[in-house]
Amino acid sequence: MPTLGLSMIVRDAEKHIRGCLDSVRGMVDDVQIADTGSTDSTVRIASEMGARVVSIPWENDFAKARNLALQEVHTDWVLVLDADEQLDPSVSRYLPGLMDKPNVRGYLTSIRNYVLSAQDHVWDQLAVPNNTNFERARQYPAYAEHQNVRLFRRAPEIFFVGRVHETVGTTIESSGGKVSPCPVLIHHFGLVEDPDTRAQKNRLYREMGRQKLLEMPENAQAHFELGLLEFEGFHEYQEALGLFRRACELNPKLSVGWFFAGVANLKAGQPEEALRCLKNAGARPVVFEAQGDAFYALDQFDQARRAYLRAFDTVKLPPDLESKIGLAEVRSGRVRSGVAKLRKAVERDAGAPQVHDRLVTALVWLNQLGEAAEAAEKKIASVAPDPQAYLRAAVIRAQQQNWQQSLEILCRALEQFPHHPALERVLAEVQPRTMGLAVRNE
């Protein structure tokens, strides 16, 4: 029977390593860990759990580190995990049969990336509601999946390439090997790390991505990967746009590159160019939604509505998209149905700031200031504290000349956000009005 070894590279992974190694217990014959310089208890924990640990140098190159780790593996097959990942228990049913197929050299496995919001996505994959039975993952509201080659035969001609976002798939295929899909599932928790950890990782990946681009200047994927990091990790939209454009020049069939070029153009305030890019991005829900956003930015509200409706079956509309459709309907003259959709979206996902904002925007545009103010105050009560939410509610009350309520909102806001310049500026305008009101009442 073929043997299976786990190969990992780790550094300062004491939070995750125990859960990762527990998840493969009984499924692998050997655990080989290459440590790149941990200063916490990672090495001790891994050793206590039966792993063989070696130290390797870190040279800002994931592929080089993984290939050094592979040199320590002597089993027939290799499974690769990161410390913030865990193998699904169901995998034990599939492994023997997968490793018995002589014509397959590697398998595409599904990696389930858990996220903190149902509105999140991974690359161009929208998050879906989390219905997993996997215990550690139950607390997260959604996930998005992608595939990568994580299970493969050990052979000298199979090795990792790419300084970052490294893969063995390239060398398997270049050597004439077959890569097949399989039911292996990996749970990934890296996207639910604390913001400081994710920011640190983004800085490292940015540095490595720039080095990868110097090494592979004609590689469309390398341009795309760095563009995505600039776009999502650093919000450098113009920088990202240049990288996406170059990726699409190098590979005109890179639909995900065209999609993000379109979204980056939207962020840059260029909706017409966004639509031109999105024509090459395929026919998928995320593309239709982005087209809707572009039409809305061009004040083509009915076209925006139609594009949004193409994104999802209307019976299963996510609340965020339902609110976009509602706002487009209001602006295109379908006021009653539009407001109903906006209110329903708030009821369905009261914790999402953007659905409140769209309802407020619609009611202000309709000059229904009393209802707009109530909707703005409902947002304050429903979502995490935000000075802009208080500010908007106070300004709408001021537009109604309801100076006392505007003052009360501002005072509550300044208790939470002392010395906030915009709040203090509006307070300075509202306070004299309330004093005048008090004099008249006397």
Key terms for this structure?
alpha/beta; Spore Coat Polysaccharide Biosynthesis Protein SpsA, Chain A; Serine Threonine Protein Phosphatase 5, Tetratricopeptide repeat; 4 domains; nine-stranded mixed sheet; 19 helices; 53% helix; disordered C terminus
Set down the secondary structure blueprint.
Layout: E1 4-10, H1 17-23, E2 30-35, H2 42-48, E3 52-55, H3 62-70, E4 77-80, E5 85-87, H4 91-99, E6 106-115, E7 121-122, E8 125-126, E9 128-129, E10 142-153, H5 169-174, E11 179-188, H6 195-215, H7 220-233, H8 237-250, H9 255-267, H10 271-278, H11 285-297, H12 301-311, H13 319-331, H14 335-348, H15 353-365, H16 369-382, H17 387-399, H18 403-416, H19 421-441
Parallel strand pairs: 1-2, 1-4, 2-3, 6-11
Antiparallel strand pairs: 4-10, 5-11, 6-10, 7-8, 9-10
Helix pairs in contact: 6-7, 7-8, 8-9, 9-10, 9-11, 10-11, 11-12, 12-13, 13-14, 13-15, 14-15, 15-16, 16-17, 17-18, 17-19, 18-19
Mean pLDDT: 95
Structural class: alpha/beta
Shape: elongated
Give the termini distance in whole angstroms. Answer: 94 Å
Sheet with the most strands, sense and barrel status:
9 strands, mixed
Strand content: 5-15%
Say what the CATH topology of the largest domain is: Spore Coat Polysaccharide Biosynthesis Protein SpsA, Chain A
Q: What is the CATH C level class of the largest domain, in words?
A: Alpha Beta
Radius of gyration in whole Å, from Cα?
26 Å
CATH superfamily of the largest domain: Spore Coat Polysaccharide Biosynthesis Protein SpsA, Chain A
- State the order of secondary-structure elements, H for helix, E for strand: EHEHEHEEHEEEEEHEHHHHHHHHHHHHHH
Corresponding CATH architecture of the largest domain: Alpha-Beta Complex
- Unreliably modeled segments: 438-442
Tally the helices. Answer: 19
What is the total tally of β strands? 11
How many domains make up the 3D coordinates?
Answer: 4
Range of helix content? 40-55%
